[in-house]
Design brief:
The structure is a single chain. The chain is mainly alpha-helical and 320 residues long.
C-alpha cells in the first residue's frame, strides 16, 4: 500500500518567510556597544583638547620652572626664580590694580547697559527688530579692527570727534582722548561698551523671552508696580543669563589685550598696562619665555579660582 504524502500549502513567492528570533542582548554586551560608540564620538574632541590645550598647558608649566630665553631655548631649571622675578617687577602690581579697576568698570557699565537695551527691545513692537540689529551690529566687527577705528576717531589732529567739538564751541583746543591715564581708561571703556553691548544684550534678551508672560499678567492683576515686577520676577528668573554674561564679561576683561595694545600701547607712562600686556612684554620684548610662562600660570590660577567662587556664589543664591 502506497502512503500518500501530506498536502503542503502553496508557497507565495512574494511573502518573505519570518526571520528567526534574535537572541536578546545581554546588559554587558549592550553596555560595551554603547561605550565603544561613545568613545568613538568623543575621540576627535579628546584629541583636539589634548593637542591644543593639555599639551601647551604642560609646556607652559615646564617653561615657568626653567630658564627659557626666546631665542636660545631651555637652559635648565631655575625654579622658583621666574615667579619671584615677575612679582618683583615694577610693572606687576600696577598692572594687577589697573586690570582689576578696568574689569570692575567695564562689567558694571556693560552689563547695566546691555540689560537696559534688552528691556527696551523685549516686546514685539514696530521697529524692535531694527533696533536689535543696530545694537548687535558692532559685535560683528573684530576687536582689533574696532580698536584701530577708534584710534583714528580719537586722534586730536585727524580725528573727527575733536574737530567737531571745537566747531561746536564745546572745547577750545584739541582733546587728547588718550593723553592722560583717566582719558585713556575711559576712552577704552567706551570702545569696549560700544563693541560688546549688543552681544550681551542678545544673551539677556534670550533670557527675558524665556520668562512666561503669565507671570507678568498675574503680577499686574495683583497690582504690582513695574519696579516690583522687575525685582520679584524679572531679575530672579533672569539669573542664569546674568550669570553667563557676568562670567564672560569678567573673564574677557581680565584678559584684555587688543584694545590697549592698539589704542595706548600701555601708555601714557605705563598707566594702562594690563596683565596680558605684561606677558607679551616679557615674552617678545624682554625675550624671556620663562617669566612670561610663570605669569601665565598665575593668571590661569586666578581665573580658575575666580570662576569657582562665582559658580559657588550663584549656586548658593539658587538654593536660597
Amino acid at each position: 500500500m502506497q502512503v500518500k504524502a501530506p498536502d503542503r500549502a502553496p508557497v507565495d513567492p512574494w511573502v518573505r518567510p519570518p526571520r528567526p528570533a534574535r537572541r536578546p542582548r545581554t546588559a554587558k554586551s549592550l553596555w560595551r556597544s554603547r561605550t565603544v560608540q561613545g568613545l568613538g564620538y568623543a575621540a576627535p574632541t579628546a584629541v583636539f583638547v589634548a593637542v591644543f590645550f593639555v599639551w601647551p598647558l604642560l609646556l607652559v608649566g615646564r617653561m615657568s620652572l626653567n630658564d627659557w630665553p626666546l631665542l636660545a631655548g631651555d637652559q635648565g631649571g631655575n625654579a622658583p626664580e621666574n615667579y619671584t622675578d615677575i612679582t618683583d617687577s615694577p610693572l606687576f602690581w600696577p598692572a594687577v590694580r589697573f586690570t582689576l579697576l578696568y574689569t570692575v568698570i567695564v562689567t558694571v557699565v556693560l552689563l547695566g547697559l546691555a540689560l537696559l537695551l534688552a528691556l527696551l527691545v523685549q516686546e514685539s513692537r514696530p521697529g524692535a527688530g531694527f533696533f536689535r540689529t543696530v545694537y548687535f551690529l558692532p559685535g560683528a566687527l573684530g576687536l582689533a579692527s574696532a580698536s584701530l577705528l577708534f584710534w583714528g576717531l580719537y586722534s586730536p589732529t585727524t580725528g573727527p570727534i575733536s574737530s567737531t567739538l571745537e566747531d561746536l564751541g564745546l572745547v577750545d583746543e584739541p582733546v587728547s582722548f588718550l593723553g592722560t591715564p583717566t582719558n585713556a581708561l575711559l576712552s577704552t571703556v567706551f570702545l569696549v561698551v560700544w563693541k560688546f553691548a549688543g552681544f550681551y544684550m542678545l544673551i539677556l534678551l534670550v533670557g527675558l523671552q524665556r520668562i512666561p508672560h503669565e507671570l507678568y499678567e498675574a503680577a499686574r492683576m495683583d497690582g504690582a508696580s513695574r519696579g516690583q515686577v522687575f525685582r520679584r520676577i524679572t531679575l530672579p528668573l533672569l539669573r542664569p543669563s546674568l550669570a553667563l554674561s557676568l562670567l564672560l564679561c569678567v573673564t574677557g576683561s581680565l584678559l584684555a589685550f587688543d584694545q590697549f595694545f592698539v589704542l595706548t600701547k600701555g601708555g601714557p607712562d605705563n598707566s594702562t598696562v594690563t596683565i596680558v600686556q605684561l606677558i607679551y612684554r616679557e615674552a617678545f620684548q624682554r625675550l624671556d619665555l620663562g617669566t612670561a610662562a610663570a605669569l601665565s600660570i598665575i593668571v590661569l590660577g586666578a581665573l580658575v579660582l575666580l570662576n569657582v567662587l562665582q559658580f559657588r556664589g550663584l549656586h548658593r543664591s539658587d538654593e536660597s
